[in-house]
Amino acid sequence: MTNISDFGGAHTTSDGVLVVTTNEAPGYRIDEVLGEVFGLTVRSRHVGSQIGAGLKSLVGGELKGLTKTLVQSRNEAMGRLIEQAQALGANAVLAMRFDVTDQESAGGTEVCAYGTAARVSKN
């Protein structure tokens, strides 16, 4: 049986930071914009996994090992984004986005989560 947390993730507000992909958060008022924040990670897979992924790509189908690595990378980048926002005193990140870049020369993938740190309050 597949563990859904291996192949997807969602940020919760349990850490006190609301993260939204929109420019505004419905039901909230933007009190102060604190500036851009980001979280970055670069990950690589070991040679055995790369060989296995190469063989799998010959026959088609999902590369589950690579999918799990990307989910872990996104979660790590998101955690770093939230830490940076909290360090600025933010309780929200607006317009959050992910950027993913293949670093072929380094044999890894760069994942960056970024957005705008803000202080918000309920309407």
Automatic annotation (TrEMBL):
Renumbered to this chain, the signal peptide range is none
Looking up Gene3D superfamilies in the UniProt record yields: Hypothetical protein apc22750. Chain B (3.30.110.70)
Give the domain of life.
Bacteria
Tell me which family the UniProt entry assigns to this protein. Belongs to the UPF0145 family.
Q: What is this protein called?
A: UPF0145 protein BIV57_20140
Q: What organism is recorded for this protein? A: Mangrovactinospora gilvigrisea
